[in-house]
Amino acid sequence: MMRMTMPTAPISMRKLKEILRLKYGCKLSHRQIAKSLSVSPSIVSKYACKSAELDITCWPLDEKWDDNSLQQAFFKTKPRLKGFTIPDWSLVQQELRPKTMTLLLLWEEYKERHAEGFYSYTHFCRQYKAWLKCQKPSMRQNHKAGEKLFVDYCGPTMSIVDRSTGECRTAQVFVAVMGASNYTYAEATYSQKLEDWVMSHARCFEFLGGVPEQIIPDNLKSAVTKPCRYEPDLNPTYQQLATHYDTVIVPARPYKPKDKAKAEVGVQIVERWIMARLRNETFFSLRQLNLKIQELLIDLNQRQMKKHPGSRLSQFEAIDKPALKPLPLQPYSYTLVKQVRVHIDYHIEIEKHYYSVPHTLIKQKLEAHASGKLVTLYHQGIRVAVHPRSYREGAHTTLELHMPIAHQKQQQWTPQRFERWASQFGKSTEQFVMQLMQAKKHPEQSYRACMGLLSLGKKFTDQRLEAACHRALATGVTRVKQVKTILEKGLDKQPLPQAQGDSLQDIDHKNIRGNNYYH
């Protein structure tokens, strides 16, 4: 039997050298090299593997590798040795789980053990891939230690009964499965909304005692705002969680169930081994339900697996746990992240409350980070405002420094300030100012009138303004213009009549008709 050999000169020597230059000199990927040279990625992989066999791993090439040497090494056919040893492919798959392990290293160890007859590296890789294709779908993916965490929700829900009313409320069951060990986490939440979704991840990481390299979610709205096979748009709050834990979110492709096969199997197991056992029990709180789920989860993870050695827990502690990233020192706090646009009144809206930003950013798009205590606003990555979080719907939180100058001056005036100013003239002036403000639906609408009234003190003296306001209150005058007329006509200097009815009868003037006029 002959060894497998590479075809004779399928590409030119120039292209062969260019493949080596781009791979070892420019550090390009096989696909990038293939695109640059207009060849298939498999061709690039073939010669890259061959170069590894020949210990060619750098550029420029060593002087011994002239064109003739390359021709002999890459394109010359060689007879195969007889009696080669077939590797144990299941053991190879098991060995590949650690992140640092490579097929090349396993092939070198295999070659040393079977020097009398062994596969070439190319044939070794080809045969391993062929073996993988013959396995069951659940065995096709070779998950690295600590690399992937698959997350999803169960289809069925659990019921929680309100003791006081007897009403039932449904609870969703969140499931997370480690790729390499199948170690499983589950908990119940009241919804699949963003906050429940994100906080389930945070509690899952605490349960694992570390953070995986990647999170593989389905395309639910709390995870992906715009599903796409190639470039899905992640929910910014979910992305912020990944940033905090220094991990990567890689959503499963739509309509590609193999991308999240671990999650599908994990969901099925939780439904059968946890939810089915709880179907006849009654729960009166979410905490009570989760305590029971945790109890059954321990049993599930310690149960012996049929298709893998040991239990999920033993596999996790041996494979996944040592490879997990450490938890961040600062605990995660739920932070709503959303894109907002600045309104014309230089405020943005978060959950029906309004927060101010510098007025120069009107109509600009900002990124808002709203935690339980703070609202932080960013423009083009630069922080532009920070406010304490408020949950008062319809209310405004405004900083004076965010206002235009004209608005800042207006903001300095308050009803209390006008009342204090008016009280300096006297009680009647203070009462008239209060009357002006009470006549309007909003006190701010009367500020201009109040300022106009009080400014009359500069022109006519404080004493005369107080007297004019006293006469205005006594005679039912309600407008500032009428008070000004009293001052201009000097009526403030005249005494008020004792009884309004008697004084009207005693007035004798040529322009006033008497009682006889009407008879």
Automatic annotation (TrEMBL):
Pfam families: Mu-transpos_C_2 (PF22483)
Limits of the HTH IS408-type domain: 16-96
Residue span, Integrase catalytic domain: 133-323
A GO BP entry: DNA integration
GO MF term list: nucleic acid binding
Annotated segments matching region Disordered: 494-519
Family: Belongs to the transposase IS21/IS408/IS1162 family.
Record's protein name: Integrase, catalytic region
UniProt organism field: Shewanella frigidimarina (strain NCIMB 400)
